[in-house]
Each structure stands twice: as C-alpha cells, then as structure tokens.
Amino acid sequence: MDKSEFEKGKQIAYRFLSYRPRSKKEVERKLKEKKISGENILNIISLLEKNNYLNDREFTLNWLRYRMENRPRGRRSLEYELKEKGVDSEIIKDSLDEVYSGEFDEYDVAVKLAEKKIASLKKKQPPLSPLTKGELKGVVPLTKGELGGYIKRRLFSYLHRKGFSFSLIEKVMSDLFNAESIESI
After folding, report:
1. Which residue from 4, 42, 60, 140 could staple onto 95, CB 3.0 to 4.6 Å apart?
2. What is the CA radius of gyration of the chain?
3. Which residues pair with 139 in a beta bridge?
C-alpha cells in the first residue's frame, strides 16, 4: 500500500464529503476517477465507515427526507435515483418504507403535487381544438368537456413522470375529480 497515495485519496474523500453526504459508491467512483488504486480505495472507505463519515443507511434516510421536503417524488422515482447513487436495494426499500410510513404519506404528496399542477394548468392557455364543421377551417377553444379530458391526461402524465404508481395516480385523480367537479375547471 502506497502511503502517499493513501493520504492523497483520503484528502480527496474528505473534500468530496465536505460538500454533502455521499453514498459509499459515490466516494468509490470519485476515488477511481482520481486514479487511486483499488486496495487504497477499500482502505479509505473502511476508514471512513469506521469513523462514521460514510453510512449508506443514514445517507439514504437524510437524502429521502431532503428530497421529500424540497422536490417531492413518488417511490419509483426516488428508488431509481438512489440506485443511481449506488445504494443497496435492501437499504433503499427499508428507508423508503420508514420515510413513507412515518413523516410522509405518498398519497398526500401526490395530492399536493396534483393540486399544484391543476392550478398551473388552469392558468395556462389551453390548446385549441381543430374545427371540422362546415366551410370554416381552423381551430377553436376547447369545450369544457374537452378541457377536462386535457387536464386529466396532463395530470396523469405529470404524476407518472414524478414516479407515482398507476394505482395511486388513479386514486388521487378519482378523489380530486369527484371532490371538485371537472366542469368547474
């Protein structure tokens, strides 16, 4: 083991961790990128874990809480992002269960995002419908029924992109559109 490379790698890791908490895999990638040898990487990661600078479980819980407070997403999207960070699937599943069973409710998060999206869709100029009757050619504003369908399609797509399951999206939409008549949109 090269002591100078070990010290250099340790400094790289400490600097990398000083900006924000990281997963083990992120630190490992950074050290590989800086051309630190495999043996030194293992020793540095072991040292960081021993001194409690690296802990994937704590990292995952803190990252999920931050995400839910600042840029909420559905379970599927959060799981994907954590896998990209190299976190173990079992840690991800346990952490998601803990966060969603305690501080945050996925249904409530989806409803808040849906209400916000509906408000923004109402403010926007709706698309125009092609005019097919008679000699008039062109486009006309959507009817209320067409506008309701447009908002529902856009909302469904939005929630799906945010990582919510189809069954949860259907429940949210059913509850929102039964509580507030689509005709009032």
Report:
1. 60
2. 24
3. 130
